[in-house]
Design a protein that fits this description.
By secondary structure, this protein is an alpha+beta fold. It has helices spanning 17-31, 44-56, 68-78, 95-100, 107-116, 140-150, 157-170, 227-233, and strands spanning 4-9, 35-39, 61-66, 85-89, 118-127, 130-132, 135-137, 174-180, 183-189, 191-195, 217-222, 248-253, 255-259, 264-267, 270-274, 277-290. The strands form three sheets. The chain has a six-stranded antiparallel β-sheet. Strand 1 (4-9), helix 1 (17-31) and strand 2 form a beta-alpha-beta unit. Helix 2 (44-56) packs parallel to helix 3 (68-78).
């Protein structure tokens, strides 16, 4: 059945990989008999406006080509609606695509999922009127994001690694007040994250037990520890085995309110806003296109 598909492309993602993937995906969808409306904004605001307009005008699906930031942008138009959402990963992290089983380095295969895949209802997170798909950074990692955004060199993941080392040199544990479904808890922590999916940052499994359709958010808390110890255990985040450490705690809740001084939160790699904030899991808020079973 022919559909009208809005294809929202970030041509600069992946150092130009987004533009190439966008052309390949558009051709694949045309060949499958679909009408494609390609959307390329001059900036983030225009891209989001174009996505909203396409959905309002009755697009049968919204497909984004880019990284997790592009996913975040597209969600603002389709979250809480019945419009199917597809992803063709072309960024540096691609954690949402990883979580839903979309091939990370094969635009043609990702486009085929739009054509022949199936739909799955999954949860989204929400903070105020903003949707998010992945993990909220609300501690040391958020400070690292702040610092990395101010840096102009190096590029890519190396910039984040450099920012982490610099920030670790000055970072001190932060006093938090957390309200988890009405249970108020005060603690000091290095790191607090809220996960709707298992990973962020290109495969760091900070909340490895997060499930996309359980109606809950996973909250990871890293208690104060020495900076040397932090660096020693940090690689365990890539396997998710850090959750077994005595200074790491995982909790789950439908709604989480966090207050802490001097922390600006990020989700899907995008800035959300300073604490205090309330985050909630919204069950079945997204119809996402995923690989067909079998």
């Amino acid at each position: 059945m022919s559909r009208e598909i809005a294809l929202l492309v970030n041509p600069t993602s992946g150092r130009g990989r987004g533009a190439r993937a966008g052309r390949e995906v558009a051709a694949r969808l045309h060949d499958a008999g679909h009408a494609v409306r390609q959307l390329i904004g001059r900036d983030v605001r225009e891209s989001e406006d174009m996505a909203w307009e396409a959905v309002a005008q009755g697009a049968d699906a919204l497909v984004v080509v880019g990284g997790d930031g592009m996913v975040h942008l597209g969600l603002q138009a389709v979250g809480g609606t019945d419009v199917p959402f597809g992803v063709v990963p072309a960024g540096s992290g691609n954690d949402f695509a990883r979580a839903i089983g979309v091939p990370l380095r094969d635009p043609a295969a990702a486009a085929s999922i739009v054509v022949t895949g199936t739909e799955r209802r999954i949860d989204l997170g929400r903070m105020g009127d903003q949707w998010f798909a992945g993990v909220v950074a609300a501690g040391f990692d958020a400070r690292v994001n702040d610092r990395a955004n101010r840096m102009r060199w190096p590029r890519g993941r190396m910039r984040y690694n450099a920012a982490m080392l610099v920030e670790l040199g000055v970072f001190q544990p932060v006093p938090y007040v957390l309200d988890l479904d009405g249970e108020v808890w005060e603690t000091s922590a290095m790191l607090v994250t809220i996960g709707n999916i298992p990973s962020y940052g290109g495969g760091m499994k900070v909340t490895p037990g997060a499930i996309l359709d359980d109606g809950l958010l996973d909250i990871m808390i890293v208690k104060p520890l020495s900076k040397v110890r932090f660096l020693t255990v940090f690689p365990r985040v890539y396997t998710g085995s850090h959750v077994d450490l005595p200074f790491v705690e995982i909790r789950r809740a439908k709604q989480v309110r966090i207050d802490a001084p001097g922390i600006t939160t990020y989700a899907d790699g995008e800035r959300l806003g300073p604490l205090p904030q309330t985050f909630e899991a919204v069950p079945a808020a997204l119809r996402v296109l995923v690989p067909a079973a079998g």
